[in-house]
Amino acid sequence: MACPYGMIYNLSAVFNLSDTIAAIITPPGNGGIAAIRISGPDSWSLAKKFFYHTKKEGEVTKPRLQEPCFQHMQALHGYIKKENKIIDEIILLPYKALKSFTSEDVIEIFCHGGSHISSMILDICLENGARKAKNGEFTFRAFVNGRIDLTEAEAINEIINADNNRMVYETSGNLTGALKEKVSSFREKILNLITSVESTVEFPMDVPDFDKNKFIKELKEINLSFCELIKNSKEGQFLREGIKISIVGAPNVGKSSLLNILLGNKRAIVSQEPGTTRDTIEEKTMIDEWPVVFVDTAGVREAKNLSEPEQIGIERTKNALLKSDIVLLLFDLSVGINDDTNRLFDLVNGKPKVLVGNKIDLLEKPFQDIKCNVQISAKYATNIDKLKKIIIERINSFTSNHGVQNSSSVLYINQRQKELLLQCNSSISKAIDKVQNNEPEDLISDDLKEALSRLDEVTGRKINDEIITNIFAKFCIGK
Predict the structure, then answer these.
(1) Which positions ≥6 away from 373 have C-beta within 8 Å?
(2) Does residue 321 contact residue 348 with C-beta atoms inside 8 Å?
(3) Chain-centre distance for alpha carbon 89
């Protein structure tokens, strides 16, 4: 299987390009419209076996069915027929090879949106010679046929799975090749440096003397650019997984009530009995423009003869604290900051936190403690807006400390891309050390070639079959 980048992919057992494939490309369920895509060398001839175009003549209101004549991007109205019976009225859109999503001949059928009728039409496609497409197979064909590179393919899946506006905006730049262009510029610079260092070995009499200082300066500039890109991966992690905010406190201080009010629904059971929550409860929501995972935890207390389930719950709370990005430390205003709350201060371990006093409705006069950031009533939603503003401040501070920039020029990278860029960074650092230590030019060139190899894995110029298969297996069928 030849890739336009010059690499050979041996994936015929997984994705056979000689097949014509078909799949429903709209979500399952009933709706106004469903779409079926056919792609491959026989897609046009296959569609002609069951699609009949309508042609009205004069004042005749009943359309006459005729065999279609396909032209690129010329939509046709007509009917799907099986065993001489009309199945559905559709719009059919043909695409010519090199001008379609997959760069192959493509037919897209837009039928009525019932899940059964779309499945019937797909079955007709399969009966007439198509194979059902596998996960990500349409996008794989777009990649292997050179229409997109691997960063653009990954961006397609990431934007499909995006669950917040910021994720859409951040990943959409890669759909248009922003990361591909950046990596290509790195590649060109490194390739020029490889040529430069190898020329001094191969043609010592014909090229200028090796300028060590200039060489090191150029390598350091490339590495600095790598570091800037790598910093962006943290933002990608927050957008994909959400910022984890744990709600912790002693038993019966109102943690579950606070979770419910922050989510806007009764997700957790609320009871006056201490120790009701024995496990962590996680729910994702949006705070400002950030996805946030709130974690309700079991109450932490010191007492003799704790039940085994409560002990397990407390251990899970401690584990949740370790994984938290921000902590809401809740205490009962009517009790004050007691020993259990003070012990939690030690467990928080320097993480960004908000000290929240709950049950303000039980107080006759305001609670006075400079450590308390906000006083609320989870029961009556008092001062919840104030709490949310403080949470937003903590999120902005936390993300800023992790290198997140509120800039449209920031490029989104995922974990796979980050790891490869880190390896590039390491290889270039090794090359810099070798130049500074006056080591042989061929060893310097080897490190730069290693960096180049990792860059080629980012865009898919050079990558093994197992990784390619794994990437496209994460796509849905129909994409």
Answers:
(1) 354, 355, 356, 390
(2) yes
(3) 37
Where do the structural domains in the chain lie, given as residue ranges? 21-149, 160-238+414-459, 242-401
Residue 297 has pLDDT above 50, yes or no: yes
CA atoms of 217 and 387, how far apart (whole Å): 49
Q: pLDDT tens, 358-412?
A: 999 888 777 777 678 999 999 899 999 999 999 999 999 988 887 776 655 568 8
CATH number of 242-401: 3.40.50.300
Please give the Cα distance from 94 to 88 (Å, whole number): 18
3 state SS of 154: helix
Nearest by Cα to 262 from 348, 367, 376: 376
Site of tokens 């050979």: 8
| Residues whose CB is less than 8 angstroms from the CB of residue 418 and which lie 6 or more positions away in sequence, other chains included | 230, 233, 236
Which CATH class, in words, describes the domain spanning 160-238+414-459?
A: mainly alpha
If you search the block for the tokens 């979770």, which residue do you land on?
A: 259
pLDDT digits (tens, 9 = 90+) for 311-332: 777 778 888 888 889 999 999 9
Question: Is 3.30.1360.120 the CATH number for 21-149?
Answer: yes
Tell me how far the alpha carbon of residue 255 is from its chain's centroid: 31
Identify which of 263, 106, 235 has the alpha carbon closest to the alpha carbon of residue 158: 235
Fold: same for 21-149 and 160-238+414-459: no
Widest Cα–Cα separation across the chain: 93
Asked whether the beta carbons of 34 and 113 are under 8 A apart, the reply is: yes
